[in-house]
Amino acid sequence: MERWAMLAACVLLCCSCTMVTAIQRADMFPYGTLNGDSVLREGDDETSKVLSLPRPLYFFNSPFSQLYVATNGIISAQDLPMEKQYVDDGFPTDFPVVAPFLADIDTSGGRGQIYYRVTEIPSVLNRVAQEVHRGFPDANFTPTHAVVATWENVPAYEEQTRPPSPPNKVNTFQAVIGYDETDSYVLFLYPEGGLNFFGTLPKESYNVEIELPARVGFSRGEIPNILTSRNEGPYYSVTSNEQSVKNLYQFGNSGIPGLWLFHTGNRYSFDNIVPASIKGPVSTPPTVGYDSHMGTTTPDYDEFEEYVENTFDPNTQEREDDYPLTGRNPEFQPAPADGDRSRFLLPQNHYGSDNIPLTFEPVYGFEPPERQYASPNPPQTVAEGGAQQPQEQQPQLPLKVVNVHTPHRNAPPLSPGAHVVSVDEEQVNFDTGVIQYTTENKETCARFLQQCSQNAFCTDYATGFCCHCQPGFYGNGRQCLPDGAPQRVSGKVSGTVYVGSTPVSLNNIDLHAYIVVGDGRAYTAISEVPEPVGWALMPVAPIGELFGWLFALELQNSQAGFKLTGAEFSRHAEVVFYPGNQRLSIIQTARGLDDHNHLTVGTVISGSVPFLPPGAEVTMEPFKETYQYYPSVATSTSIREYSVVTADRGSESFSFQLKQNITYRDCPHNNQAATPETLQILMERVFVMFVKEERILRYAITNKISPVRAPGPELHNPCYAGTHDCDTTAQCIPLEDLAFQCQCATGYTGDGHNCYDIDECAEGLGTCGDNSECVNLPGSHRCHCQRGYEFGYDGRTCVDIDECSSSPCHINARCINGLGSFQCQCQLGFFGNGFYCSQQEDRPERLKTRCEHHRDSVKTTSADGYPITGVYKPQCDAEGQYLPQQCHGSTGYCWCVDSRGEERAGTRTPPGAAPVDCDRPDQPEHVKTHCEHHRDSVKTTSADGYPIVGAYVPQCDAEGQYLSQQCHGSTGYCWCVDSRGEERAGTRTPPGAAPVDCDRPVQPEHLKTHCEHHRDSVKTTSADGYPITGVYKPQCDAEGQYLPQQCHGSTGYCWCVDSRGEERAGTRTPPGAAPVDCDRPVAVTPTERPESMCERWRASLIEHYGGKPGPQQYVPQCEPDGEFSPVQCYGETNYCWCVDQNGRMVPGTKSDDAVKPACISSVPPPTVRPTSRPDVTPPINTGITLLYAQGQKIGALPLNGTRLDESRSKTLLALHGSIVVGIAYDCKENQVYWTDLSARSINRASMVSGAEPEVLINTNLVSPEGLAVDVKRRLMFWVDSTPDVIERANLDGSGRRTLFDTDLVNPRAIIVVSSTGTLYWTDWNREAPKIESSSVDGQNRQVIVSDGIGLPNALTYDSATEQICWADAGTKRLECISSDGSGRRVIHANLNYPFSMVYYRNHFYYTDWRRDGVIAVNKHRSLFTDEYLPEQRSHLYGITVATTHCLPGSH
C-alpha cells in the first residue's frame, strides 16, 4: 500500500514530469489462494461456477446478482456460450461483458492461472475508493463490495500443428469491479511487462494467418423488448488495433501507465461507459466513435444503423459534419428498449496514430440489431395484376437543334413548376396542363438560361428550349445532382390523421431522408410524431417510398424518377386499408434544392388509419410495383400486404391499396415520345418501426428500378445485386459477366473504393464570378454573393443591392448608396450617426455605431439563458469602430477588416498561427500555385484544433512547386513526383527503405510481360498506403515470366502454373504441406483427402470476392472434415438457414431474426480410433438419473434430490459414428430408446451393465429427431423433420404407421402423456411455429399454441399441474399452458438456447446450446438453480428421466 500511495502521489504532484513509471506486478490488487481467491479450472474455454454477489451490481442501468469469470479474459453477468460464438468477434456481444483482454486464451496443461473472488476487505475497498475519487472527483462513491479477477501468466491458444510459442509469451492483467448501492466502477490493470502477446489467431481461420487484436471494453449485451425479439445494447471499446492494445500498459486514463478506470453503471440513469480523464503526458482516452449531433429533434443519420448491406468503413465515409441534421454513417438502427436516444451513435471511427495519444472525448458504439431483418435474397412478390408490357412507341421526328448555351454560374430559385393534377390510370389525359408552349411566344435559351441548373446546358429547339444535365450529373436539366453521390431530403410533415375515431394533428414536424444512390437504399425518419399515430403510420411505408423511386438503383434500360421530375414536382397518393376501408391521403410537394443541394419536400397527410396497439411490430415482404409514365405524369396502383405482431394477438395479416400519381414539369420541345411507358420498381427490403421514447417514425427501403420483364442475367452482376464494394460516394459500373468498376461520383476523387470530396473552391475549379464567394459542398459547390450584393436577373451574376431603396436611414438623414454598402448622413443642422439624427446643439449621448449595431444584434444566448456556441460576435473599440483584427471565439480563426467590418482578402489565419499585422497596408496577394492549392485544401485539423491524422499533405518548395520527393507523414511511404505532382511509376518505397533519387532521369520503361501486368494490376495497398490482406499477387521471375510454383501470401496455398499462369490441375497443396515439384508430372497421393464440395465452393467464392469477402456476402461454412456446417449464414448477418449434407437448404428453416435456426448435422464427426465397445455402463446406486444425448454418446447424470450430482456423472453408452438426438425411457422395462441421425435409425438398449444396442427401425427414415415412449400402450412415437411426418410403432419396431404427413414443416419435439393417451409435438417452422396435440391414434388434431412463440425446441409435461410446458430458443422463454389453451404462464423469461427439456419434482431440466450443458430451473422461484457442463464440450440434444419406478402420468 505504501508503494501504491507514493506512486499515486508522484502522479498528482509532479505536474512537470514527462513520464510516470508504469505499475508493477507488486502494485496489482492482492490475488491468489492465500487471499481467498478461487481458481478457474484449466482449459481452453472454461467458465467459473456462479459467483453470487451479496447485493446487486448495476452494470449500465441493469442490476445483476451473479457473475462468471471466463478463460478468455472476460467477466460476464450471464453464463457464457461456447467461445466460438464470441471470442473471434468484435463488440457488441449478446451477453453482458467486462473485457480486460478478450482473446483466445488457453490454460491447458497448467500454463497460467486465473483467480477470482468477491471481497469486502477494507484495504481493497479503500484502494478502489481512492482511485475512483482521483479519476472522478465529484463522485459520491463508497464501495461496499469488490470483485477481483486476475489472469496470471496466461498464454494464447495455439494449434498443435503450429510450432510452440516462446515460454515467456504470456500475459498478466487484472480487472477490479467496485460497487455500492447505486454505482459501479471498473479498474483494468496492466503491469509493466505483463502483455507479451496482443492478439490471437482465430480457430476457424481457414489457414489464413491473420491475428485478431484483443478486444478491451464493455458490452451491455442483448436487451429484451416487450415482444419476442431483442435489441443489442450499447457498448464501449477501448482498443481498435494491435498498437492500441500495446498502449494498454504504456498509457492510462488515470494518470498512471497501465491503470485504466471507468464508470460502468448507475441504478437510476446511465447512458454509456464514462472513462476517467486525469490529464497528463501519459493520459490517453481510447479510440472510439465520435458523435456531435445531439441537439436536434430529428435524428441524424448516424442513428441509422443496419440494415445488412450497410457495412461501411467509417474512415472512408463522406465528410458531412458541417451540415445540420446530418451524420457520418447512414445506418438504420432501431432504438434500445429504454429509448435512450443518446445511445444512437456511430460505429467506431479510429482517430490518432500509433504513436500520438489523443485527448478528445470518446463516444460510444451501438451495434445494428436491424441486421436481423435484412435478408440477402428475400422472396419476391409481384404486384397484383402482373406487369404491364410497354406499348409500342410512335415513330419520332428528328430533333432540330437550333442553338446550345452553357451556363457558368449558380442557378437562382426556379420559376414555379408544374400544376398538380389528379390522374386515374384508366383515364390519363395527355393534355396535362402543366406547361403550354406556342411558337408565337417561344422561350429561348438566351432569355431563360437562368432556369437551367449551373450543371446543365441549354438547347434551343423549334418550339422552345430544354435544359440537359452535363455529363457527370443527372436530373431534368433544371436541377442536376452529381452522379453517384448520396442524396439527402429534408422537409416538414403536417395534417390531421384519425386513428380510429381520435383525430391527431401533425404540426410541421421534421422529416429527413438519406439515400445511398449507389445501391438504392433509402432511409426516412419523421420526428416528434404523437404516439397514437406513430404506431398507426408504421404500415404507411409509401411516405418514404417516394425517395426510393426518385433515387433507385438503375438496372439496364431504366431510369430513376429524379431524372424526370428534377426537384420540383407534386405527388398525390391515396391509401385504402382493408378490411376497415380507412382512407389516407398523402400529398408531397418538392420545392427545389436548398443551399446544400438537399431536396426539400413538404408532406401533408390527412384521413384515417387503423389503430395499432403500442408495442406492435409491422413487417412487409419485398414487392414489385409497376409505374406508368405519361407526359408530365407517372402513376401506379398496387395492393400491399403487411403483418402486425402484438403481444395479445400474435401475428395478423392486413393489406392496403395504393393509388398514386406524380406530376412534374417535363420539356416537350425535344420531341419525346408521347406514348406511355412502364418501369418496374423492386423494393427488396422494407423495414419500418416507431420508437416510442423518441417519437420517431422510421422507414428503410432498398429500391431497384428496371423494365417490366423477368430479371435477366445482369442481376447477378455485383452492381445490380448490391454486393459490390464501391464507396457510398461512388458509382458501380457493370462490366462483362461479374466484373465491375468503381468510379468516384462527380465532385469526388479516389479509386472508387475510397472517395474524397473535391474542394472546387480551394482547387480553383469553382464557377463563381465577381463579388461572390465559393462555398464547397459534398460533390459540388455553390456561389454566394458577398454582403451588399445579390443575384441579378440571370440568377448568376452578383449585383449591388441598393440599400437606400428600403429607406434605412433616419428621416432627417440622407442615404448614400455604394458598391456593396451604404452610408447614412444627418442633414445640415442635425446631429447623429445617420440612423438617428437630432437638432440639439449639445452633442447627444453617443449613438450606436455600425459595429455596435452589428455586435448587439448577434444572439449569443438561447431563450432559456444558455449560451449559443459557434456564433461570431464582432469586436468594437472604445469609439465603437471595428477593431482592425477580428477573431471567432469558437473556431479561433482571425482576420483583418476594413472600417465597414468587411474582411480583407488574404488575412485569415487558423487557430494557433501568428496573426497578420492588420496595420500594414495590403500586399498584393500571391497567386497560389497548383501545389499550394493542393496543400492548403487538405484539412489537417478538426474544428476543435486537434490534428487529423492519416491525411497526405503535399510538400511545396519556396516557389510553391512540388518537391520532387513526396512522403506520407502517417504511413512513411515516399515517392517521386513530376511538376504536376503526379507520382512517377516505380519510385514508391516503404517506411524505413532508402528512398529513390528523384533527381535522376527516369529510365526507359521495360515493356511488361503478361505476368508483370497481372502482378502490377493487383491492388495491395490502400489509398493511405496500408497493405490490403487477402489478395493473391502473382510471382514473376527475372525475365517477367510466371514462376512455375505460385503461392497465396495470405492463405498459404501453393500450386503449379503453366506459361500463361493457369493453374495445373491436381497441384494445389494446403498450408504447411510439402509443395508439388512443378517440374515433374503430377502424382496424386491416394491417401490424401480430396477437397470436398463445400471446400471447393468456398474457395471459388472467396476468389470471386477478391480474397476478402464482405460481411454481407455468402461464403459456405464447412466443418473440419469438409462437410457443410448444418447452419449456413450470409456473412456476419442473421439471415441463416439449415442445409442437408449436400448443402441444399432445408425448407422452412430460413431465419432473419436474432436467433439462428436450430440445425442438426446429419453427418457424424470423424471417429477417433481405437473405438470402445458400444455397451451400456450405467451409474451405480442411483434412483433418479437424467439421460442426455450428446452426439456420439448417451450420458448419465444422477440427481441428488433435485441437485445435479456432477461427481457421479458418466457415459452410459458410447456410439461412435452416430448422432444421437431424440431420447426416451421405458420405466417398465428399464430400457433407453434413441434416434440416430447419422445411421437414420431408431434404437434401444437395456440399462444394465454390458447390454448392447438393438436396432429397431432403419428403413424410410431421413431425419428422425424427437422420440417419445408410451409406457402404458407399449408404443413409441417420433418425428422426421425432412419428410415432415409423425409416425408410431410398437416398442419392438413392428406395427409402424404414419399418423400425420400434412401441415408440418419442421417438427422437432414430441411427448406422450400415457395417463390421458394424448400426444403433443412442436413445429418450429420459422414462418408459423406452433404446438399441436392429438390422441395417440391420430384423432382430434388441434393447435394448442401458435401466438407469441418463435423456436419451440423443447417440450415436457408437468404432472403436478397437468400442463404442457415448452422452452423457446426464439423468445428465450419457458412457458406452460393447459391442454385446452387456458392458463398460459411464463416460468422463466431469460433462457439461453434450449434444445430439449424434462420435468421432475418442481424443476425443469433442459439442454442448452449456448452453455453446452444441462441447466436446472426451479418452477416456483423462476430461478436457475444448478448447471452441469460435461468435460467434452459439444451440443447436447435430447434429455429424459430414468427412474427405478414409473413416475405419475407416465403410465
UniProtKB/TrEMBL annotation:
Region annotation Disordered: where it falls in the sequence: 314-338, 366-394
A GO biological-process term: epithelial cell differentiation
Domain (EGF-like) ranges: 441-481, 715-756, 757-799, 800-838
Domain annotation Thyroglobulin type-1: ranges: 848-918, 928-998, 1008-1078, 1091-1159
Single GO MF annotation: calcium ion binding
Composition-biased stretches (Low complexity): 383-394
Leader sequence residues: 1-22
Domain NIDO: 100-267
Keyword Translocase among record annotations: no
InterPro entries, per the entry: 6-blade_b-propeller_TolB-like, Dev_reg/Prot_inhib, EGF, EGF-like_Ca-bd_dom, EGF-type_Asp/Asn_hydroxyl_site, EGF_Ca-bd_CS, G2_nidogen/fibulin_G2F, GFP
Any single GO CC term annotated in Swiss-Prot or TrEMBL for this entry: extracellular space
Identification of the protein by name: Nidogen 2a (osteonidogen)
Organism in which the protein naturally occurs: Astatotilapia calliptera
